[in-house]
Design goal:
The chain contains 4 helices and no strands. The longest helix is centred in the first third of the chain and has 40 residues.
Length: 138
């Protein structure tokens, strides 16, 4: 993020006349804040979906009753803060803790891969679409 914000701001500010620099700065700031809010909301929802999917896969490996599996899955919205329900016995408790851990790591890895892909896509788009008009043509 820090590698792209300064050049983006410089590009925005350099593309408008001095008369509109305040407006350009305000719009740039507002768009940055809106993008951050949307990114947090979208990636948060995706993390819950990935975690729930990973937990379903992990729970298939455990010998729990369907009622207990449902109770364990209800904690999926808590992501890394998910707690083993009180009704789970000692032998399965550790297995559920490991399932929560593995599910969280899987969800986090998926989110990081998406972020890396989006970062690469942004770099590719900037390389393709941004032209340096300051370079003299000979």
């Amino acid at each position: 993020m820090s590698l792209t914000v300064a050049p983006l701001t410089a590009t925005v500010m350099g593309s408008v006349s001095d008369h509109f620099s305040g407006t350009a700065s305000g719009i740039n700031n507002a768009m940055t804040r809106i993008a951050n809010v949307f990114a947090n909301a979208i990636f948060g929802a995706l993390a819950v979906l990935f975690f729930s999917g990973a937990m379903q896969g992990e729970l298939k490996k455990l010998s729990l009753k369907e009622k207990d599996k449902k109770t364990v899955m209800e904690q999926s919205a808590n992501l890394g803060n998910a707690k083993v329900p009180a009704g789970i016995d000692g032998s399965n408790k550790k297995a559920v803790e490991i399932a929560y851990h593995n599910g969280f790591i899987s969800a986090y890895g998926n989110i990081m891969r998406i972020c890396a892909g989006l970062g690469f896509l942004g770099a590719l788009m900037s390389a393709v679409f941004i032209r340096n008009s300051a370079v003299k043509k000979e």
